[in-house]
Amino acid sequence: MPPTAQRRVLLVGATGLVGREINALLAADPGVREVVALVRQPLPAQYRHPRLREVVTDFESLARDPEPFAVDQVFCALGTTIKKAGSQAAFRRVDHDYPLEVATLARAAGARHFLLVSALGADAQSRVFYNRVKGELEQGVRALAFPSLTIARPSLLEGDRSEVRPGEILGAKLAFLVPGRWKPVHVRQVARALVQAAADERVGEHVLENVELRRFAR
Prior knowledge:
single chain; seven-stranded parallel beta sheet; two-stranded parallel ribbon; alpha/beta; about 20% strand; Rossmann fold
């Protein structure tokens, strides 16, 4: 793509920890013409900017309107927790089924670059349910053969949450005890890494492991 070309970008998960940071960075990116945010309900005012166009949709009927998926790149930062979802099945629906359908629709519409927020330890063969779901999503997206695929695998995420997660608070306090591969990473670092990858748009698959994500500025 020519350096002066402006990209049309789809963002899924715009109100999440990483998603809102990606949204803010894209708002200031001169290489981005439009950010299409696929959302369940209208975005709060603080997430809106001149380049943003929100599309309120029912994630159970994503294929009903193909227009939002006609983009150059897709940032997928959609995710939940088993506790918040209520069951493993509901968690899988949000963290696997919805993102994979978004990827499928976008690829069919011509998107060339998919950028995914996955997780450290993602492995389709893992005995750990969370890691297995993340790994299966990576596997599913990989099979769609995007010209460019960027996968970020962060460890525990640091950032301003609206909910309290005791496990992540404890993990942050004990971070000095663990190797760099497992240390918490700030959501801004993950967002910066993905936005930079979108600007570079290297062909092929590129996995950003936690150590590499932590090298980006907050």
